[in-house]
Automatic annotation (TrEMBL), chain B:
GO molecular function: metal ion binding
InterPro entries attached to this UniProt entry: SQR/QFR_C/D, SuccDH_FuR_B_TM-su
Primary localization: membrane
Region (Disordered): 1-21
Keyword tags: Heme, Iron, Membrane, Metal-binding, Transmembrane, Transmembrane helix
GO CC terms of this entry: membrane
Listed Gene3D superfamilies: Fumarate reductase/succinate dehydrogenase, transmembrane subunit
Protein's recorded name: Succinate dehydrogenase
Transmembrane region(s): 31-58, 78-98, 118-137
CDD domains tied to this protein: SQR_TypeA_SdhD_like (cd03500)
Superkingdom of origin organism: Bacteria
Record localization: Membrane
Length: 115, 155
């Protein structure tokens, strides 16, 4: 049940981000200055943490989505749904740890280390 | 484990004590939509994980993203098609997901219709805008001076 709630919440969060993401990327059609200015405004630790949270939501939604597909289409899926939820959570940690190390290093070293 | 249970949508409210919306026609739309969520979901896992890996993990990661970075990618049809597929599949997947949530929680017919109308207009605008941007994009716009990709002619 909580995986279902989590799937809905992360889904809505990702969708709202996607609308904004297409809009900001569309600024490349306005001018290089406009795009680089807006992207530059994202390059701070607060947004960096937001990006980390967004990727965390995407990775959970992706892995839990694959679990839903397995439950729906694999004969033994419903029987192993709880084990597959643990697999989702472990896979989420396995992906997120290296991602967070790499991403937060980039975000914080560039912000505090200057350009 | 926790004993707190969240009621299934449309199952327990004063306004809809029982599920009693009009039965729709014998359309297979809902089945097609259900299948689309699973098929597009698998494809999106590949497209979005690839997108995140290339843009956030390789090179200087997110710090390297500027106009020149986008221009460099979209000078290749490979990334144009990749991003186009990602745009359409993600928008349709997300729109159908939010449509389901609206159907579950907006109980009044008028509210449901209004929210879905707003959703469909917003989605259509974003899909059309994103598609136009990918295909009408000029990596070396006249008059631009900063952050151009290296292959642009020097002015």
């Amino acid at each position: 049940m909580w995986s279902w709630v989590g799937h809905r919440i992360t889904g809505v969060v990702i969708f709202v981000f996607l609308l904004v993401h297409v809009l900001d990327t569309s600024l490349v059609r306005v001018s290089p200055e406009a795009y680089t200015a807006v992207i530059g405004a994202y390059k701070n630790p607060i947004m960096g943490l937001g990006e980390a949270a967004l990727v965390a939501a995407i990775v959970f939604h992706a892995f839990n989505g694959l679990r839903i597909i397995a439950i729906d289409f694999w004969k033994k899926g419903p029987k192993y749904q709880r084990q597959m939820l643990w697999t989702v959570l472990i896979a989420w940690v396995v992906v997120m740890v290296p991602f967070l190390i790499r991403h937060l290093t980039i975000v914080f070293s560039n912000f505090f280390g200057g350009h | 484990m926790s004993s707190k249970v969240i009621d299934a949508p449309r199952s327990n409210s004063a306004e809809t004590p029982k599920y009693k919306r009009n039965k729709s026609s014998h359309s297979s739309f809902e089945m097609v939509a259900w299948l689309f969520m699973r098929v597009s979901g698998v494809v999106l896992v590949v497209l979005i994980f690839g997108h995140l890996f290339v843009n956030l993990m390789l090179g200087d990661g997110i710090h390297a993203i500027d106009f020149g970075f986008v221009a460099g990618k979209w000078s290749s049809p490979f990334w144009q098609i990749w991003d186009l597929a990602m745009l359409w599949l993600a928008m349709l997947h997300g729109t159908n997901g939010v449509r389901t949530i609206i159907n579950d929680y907006a109980e009044r017919n008028g509210t449901r219709m209004t929210l879905k109308t707003v959703l469909y207009i917003a989605s259509a605008v974003i899909i059309v805008l994103g598609t136009l941007v990918i295909f009408t994009f000029d990596p070396c716009p006249a008059g631009a001076v900063i952050d151009l990709p290296s292959f642009c002619p020097v002015p």
